[in-house]
Amino acid sequence: MKETGVIKFNCNWIKEDPMDAGLLLDLNLWREKMFALGFIGVYEDGIGYGNMSIRFRGNQFIITGSATGKLKHLTSRHFTKVTSYDLEKNSLTAAGPILASSESLTHAVIYEHDKNVNAVIHIHNMGLWKKLMNKMPTTNKNIEYGTPAMAKEIIRLFDETNLRTQKILVMSGHEEGVIAFGKNLNEAGNVLFKALNS
Prior knowledge:
Blueprint: E1 10-15, H1 25-36, E2 41-42, E3 48-49, E4 51-57, E5 60-64, E6 79-86, E7 91-96, H2 104-113, E8 119-124, H3 126-132, H4 148-160, H5 163-166, E9 168-170, E10 177-182, H6 185-197
Parallel strand pairs: 1-7
Antiparallel strand pairs: 2-3, 4-5, 4-8, 5-6, 6-7, 8-10, 9-10
């Protein structure tokens, strides 16, 4: 069984009404594209996979909520805003109608370490995962997703590899997991499509 979708951080969840749907139009459009391609979804055991986010303000970001992978269409009730995080305490604060995705710490460090990034897409695709393994920036296979260790590993990739220019990484210890990012959702999505078709 693939271990995914389990929240491993302490979440200070502030329940708030859904955000204005207008803020989510592009995010929802791209999320539906990823779902249609099977890059976001749910495994036969019911565990969901894949998540997406956009920068909101400063290092704050809007991300798909936990356990939304199974849903074909999302509404504003399925997104939440991450307002702060602390790797050393393995915690983050999220405000919205739903818990933040299990991969939120990973998104957080990407936004913090590249101010030009405004969108992050985390997909699952076995073919792409195998194809890019150790050819693109790749995390250590012993590092689990959704943990401070994974977030720190991505910081290491920013410091030691060409991740900032490649805009795509492989999560070696998270089977099928690939993350792409860019100045907007179009760029992040096109990074994925280019990698798939190269």
